[in-house]
Amino acid sequence: EDPVKLAEFEARIARGEKVEPMDWMPALYRKQVIRMMEQHAHSEIIGALPEGAWITRAPGFKRKMAQLAKVQDEVGHAQLLYSAAETLGKTREEMMNDLLSGKSKYSNVFNYPTPTWADSTIISWLIDAGAIVNQLANAKGSYGPYCRALERICVEESFHLKYGHDAVVHLATGTPKQRLMIQEALNRWWQPIMMFFGPPDKLSIHTETLMKWKVKMATNDECRQQFLDMYVPKVWELGLTLPDPKLHKNEAGTWEYTEPDWEEFKQVINGNGPCNAERLAVRRTAEEKGAWVRKALLRPEARYVKPLA
Ligand code: FAQ
Q1: How far is residue 151's CA from residue 136's CA, in Å, rounded to a whole number?
Q2: Ligand 1 pocket, 127 CB below 6 A?
Q3: Nearest protein CA to atom 5 of ligand 1, as residue
Q4: Atom of ligand 1 at shortest range from CA of 47
Q5: Beta bridge partners of 76
Q6: Residue 265 and residue 175: Cα distance in Å, rounded?
Q7: Domain-by-domain residue ranges, the chain?
Q8: Nearest-CA residue for atom 4 of ligand 1
Q9: Which of 154, 206, 213 to mutate to test the pocket of ligand 1 (most atoms within 8 A of CB)?
Q10: Which tens digit of pLDDT belongs to each residue from 215-243?
Q11: Fewer CB atoms inside 10 Å of the end CB: C or N, the chain?
Q12: Residue 220 · residue 199 · CB < 8 Å
């Protein structure tokens, strides 16, 4: 790498300037930003599946409509993120192939089942909450197209968060059966949520490089702490409990907790979680079924717009 160009690039980042697609950038920066945006995009389309399963079964017409709109938003986020990743030279087709072959990762949390409506509401509330913590920080990062996509995504996610909170409050203040349902879902989701922010900083491979280049604006542990600070009190406020007897805020203001099972995390992100095969199978079918549409759109006559009579 040209040391003069690298020094100029790093000086721009230090001044808080945005990097744009045609600007010079180190090969490793390009590779890392593609990796992050691509994994994020995959998480959005795969993330549509566990909640998507509840569109037709959400309680009542209003919840069905809202669930449909939320899932549609998540797929829209994937569109924004794939477009942002394409600006750095990886095609959508390559990204999709890497997802389907298992080469690319996506968020651990979407490899767990949503056996009840309460599981779906926990995703809408707490996974979206976690995503906002991470994305609000990174929206102030260095790669222009990613930051602009994140800004818009965060606005929509904030609405999802309110929707999710409303649905959780409804169950938590409902009948004993509803309260049990939401408590059990919370117990199932707590570990995956704690893992959502990534491995502890001391085990994180990419944090140092990504923070140096302001792609990541907060470490995994900083995001996890911020999430705990904002949401544990809200969970307790509802009279719900969290399945970690060690969880508390110490005198220094830091949350202490039992480390989640990082071996399980490793298995899940490497394709061996409870739903990985099912999630990829659904995507594979969607790709196959949609192939004729993409093919038709690529034909030159598809670009012809018939003038109004
Ligand atoms: N899941 O060195 P680090 C959403 C991997 S969007 C799977 O710490 P890094 C919206 C990591 O890739 C959710 N893999 O990595 C929604 C790396 O593997 P590699 C997604 C994970 O990049 C809501 C290895 O472990 N958000 O939820 C995870 O510095 C509701 C080492 O880790 C984003 O993608 C994980 N949780 O930090 C949709 C945001 N954590 O690639 C539907 C952008 C780590 O070397 C419904 N991404 N790994 O093979 C990021 O902020 C970062 O990439 C982190 C990980 C923080 C996820």
Answers
A1: 7
A2: yes
A3: 198
A4: 42
A5: none
A6: 34
A7: 3-280
A8: 131
A9: 206
A10: 999 999 999 999 999 999 999 999 999 99
A11: C
A12: yes
